[in-house]
Structure formats: structure tokens, C-alpha cells
Design a protein that fits this description.
Elements (H helix, E strand, L loop, with lengths): L4 H16 L5 H8 L3 H14 L11 H4 L4 E9 L8 H8 L4 E6 L6 E7 L2 H12 L5 E9 L4 E2 L2 E2 L14
Antiparallel strand pairs: 1-3, 1-4, 2-3, 5-6
């Protein structure tokens, strides 16, 4: 498939559909976009081979699943290393299984690290025993996520409103 502006737009549309629901099959995407199913399948295969599609993902509401699950955002101030800057320390951090996401950010801190654990103690232990002792880590600030309202575009709280009792004189 030669890449024209129209082709690039079709690729973006296919990727947006898959980002919203990775289970949408190529036939359904082709119908949605008014294009050929084999073209959609080729776009998906090329995106996977190129690393544009990293993985397929489900957003799970762990509170509803009844599993203990704690998220925290940890701000990390680091000393950049000669030759590698922030990359080497970021790599050491993202290799930990507890680290869900690692970002280089602007502001007071250098890295934002999202971690998960079964309890606040698990996360505190991760920070104290694995993250804080790393060479180059100057300081950390941990923010525990008390409730998830929306994640990856999906609303995780029900919109059920409590029924109000009538007011009587």
C-alpha cells in the first residue's frame, strides 16, 4: 500500500478505533471506514511489525473485581548521568515489575512513576527498598491514588444517583 495523505488518514483512523477497543475485528473496522478488509488487516499487521501497536489491552476496574489494588504516582528527583542524561536511571526504574508507567516530566521533579501493589505497604516497601536507594535518586514524593474515576478514556464509576427522600413538613 503506497502511503498517501488519504492512506495516512486511514491508518490513523484504524489506530484510533483499535485504541478505543482492541477487540474490534478488521471486518468491522473496514465497514466503519468504508474501506477494504484486506487493507485494514495489512495496516494492523504493519503497525504490529513496526511497533506502533505495542500490545492489546483491557482496562480492568479492580474495585469491581474485588481484588486489592493500590496505585500510586511517585515523583522522583534524579541526578542526570553524563552521556545518558535521564535515560539510564529511567530504564533502571521501568525494569521494575511494580512500575506501570515512567515519564520524564518538567517541573520540580524529573520523573513521574506510576506503580501498583496489593497494599499501601507494598508500595511503601518498593519506594524504600528499590527506588530510593538507586544511585542518582535524590528524593521521592509518593501520591496514593485514592479512587480512580476515569482511566484511558473509560469512566470507572457508576453514574447511579442516590435516591433522595421526599421532604415532609
Amino acid at each position: 500500500m503506497t502511503e498517501t495523505n488519504e492512506t495516512r488518514e486511514t491508518i490513523r483512523k484504524v489506530l484510533r478505533i483499535l485504541e478505543r477497543d482492541c477487540l474490534t475485528d478488521p471486518k468491522q473496522i473496514a465497514i466503519m471506514l468504508g474501506t477494504d478488509e484486506t487493507d485494514v488487516a495489512a495496516i494492523i499487521a504493519a503497525a504490529q511489525a513496526h511497533g506502533t501497536i505495542v500490545r492489546h489491552k483491557a482496562v480492568i476496574n479492580w474495585e469491581r473485581a474485588g481484588d486489592p489494588y493500590v496505585l500510586a504516582l511517585i515523583e522522583v528527583k534524579v541526578t542526570p548521568q553524563r552521556e545518558t542524561g535521564f535515560d539510564a536511571i529511567a530504564e533502571r526504574i521501568y525494569r521494575f515489575p511494580e512500575a506501570r508507567s515512567v515519564y520524564l516530566v518538567s517541573g520540580t521533579y524529573d520523573l513521574a512513576v506510576q506503580v501498583h501493589g496489593r497494599s499501601m505497604q507494598d508500595i511503601a516497601s518498593f519506594v524504600a527498598s528499590k527506588l530510593a536507594p538507586l544511585d542518582g535518586v535524590q528524593s521521592t514524593v509518593t501520591h496514593f491514588m485514592l479512587r480512580r474515576y476515569k482511566e484511558d478514556g473509560d469512566i470507572l464509576v457508576s453514574s447511579e444517583q442516590a435516591e433522595r427522600l421526599p421532604i415532609t413538613p
